[in-house]
């Protein structure tokens, strides 16, 4: 027997060329195993072109035997990065790099990588290259919000209604002075971003409840117009009725 170079952990191979193997010390026998292509690395589903980045690699790496050949599509059409001199490419790799030359909008689109050999083809997930602009940065609408008046002990809901943007979305409730609104069993933020008070108390009265929507992928935080809450005392109302 001789030392065996394994291409997978599930195969145990025996040497069949003893004279060839005996010329090595220790003897080694090479037995190539054909393999289907398999994608090993790719870019995330959303690739954001932030203005302060120097370049944007669109990744696609794969293994296989024979070595796979790479092809790309953009928006469902054949796309060859080797034909565009502005893109940086490497032989035996599906990855190409988009340099940030200030004109990225023409590269915006949905890409998909294919790695193929004679045994078959592996396909990556879709990769969307997004170029943000001042027109698609999320913003709250400018609006005038009337004060919310509520009796002490009654529930209150402050609606956030965050703008749509590139996920993930993070919601924060703070004051204009950027002090977080404390949350507990009585005060909480729902999955929809609204601020809920199970029962209002006098100390909830204030004029600067602000909803902040953060979009970390594009490093953007936007603020909604401040909201006012006025909590009236139930004791005063009872006294007024009694009089």
From TrEMBL:
Signal peptide positions on this chain:
1-23
* Entry keyword DNA-binding: no
One of the protein's GO biological processes: axon guidance
Q: Name one GO molecular function term.
A: cell-cell adhesion mediator activity
Tell me the ranges covered by the Ig-like domain, including all copies. Answer: 37-128, 138-228
InterPro entries listed in its UniProt record: Ig-like_dom, Ig-like_dom_sf, Ig-like_fold, Ig_sub, Ig_sub2
Q: Does the keyword Signal apply?
A: yes
Keywords on record: Immunoglobulin domain, Signal
GO annotations of cellular component type = axon; plasma membrane
PANTHER family, sorted: BASIGIN RELATED, FASCICLIN-2
Task: Indicate what this protein is called per its UniProt record.
Answer: Ig-like domain-containing protein
Q: What is the lineage of its organism?
A: Eukaryota, Metazoa, Chordata, Craniata, Vertebrata
């Amino acid at each position: 027997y001789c030392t065996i170079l394994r291409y997978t952990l599930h195969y145990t191979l025996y040497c069949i060329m003893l004279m060839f193997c005996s010329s090595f010390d220790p003897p080694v026998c090479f037995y190539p195993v054909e393999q289907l292509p398999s994608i090993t690395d790719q870019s995330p589903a959303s690739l954001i072109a932030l203005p302060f980045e120097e370049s944007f690699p669109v990744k696609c790496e794969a293994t296989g035997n024979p070595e796979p050949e790479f092809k790309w599509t953009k928006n469902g059409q054949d796309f060859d990065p080797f034909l565009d001199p502005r893109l940086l490419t490497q032989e035996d790799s599906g990855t190409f790099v988009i340099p940030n030359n200030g004109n990225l909008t023409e590269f915006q689109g949905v890409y998909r990588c294919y790695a193929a050999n004679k045994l078959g083809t592996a396909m990556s997930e879709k990769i969307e290259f997004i170029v943000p602009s001042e027109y698609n940065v999320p913003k709250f609408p400018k609006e005038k919000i009337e004060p919310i008046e509520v009796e002490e002990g009654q529930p209150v809901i402050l609606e956030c209604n965050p703008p749509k943007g590139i996920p993930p979305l993070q919601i924060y409730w703070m004051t204009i002075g950027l002090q977080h609104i404390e949350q507990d069993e009585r005060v909480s933020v729902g999955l929809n971003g609204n601020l809920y008070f199970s029962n209002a108390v006098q100390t909830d009265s204030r004029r600067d409840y602000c909803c902040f929507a953060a979009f970390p992928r594009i490093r953007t935080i936007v603020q909604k117009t401040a909201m006012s809450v006025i909590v009236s005392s139930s004791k005063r109302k009872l006294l007024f009725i009694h009089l």
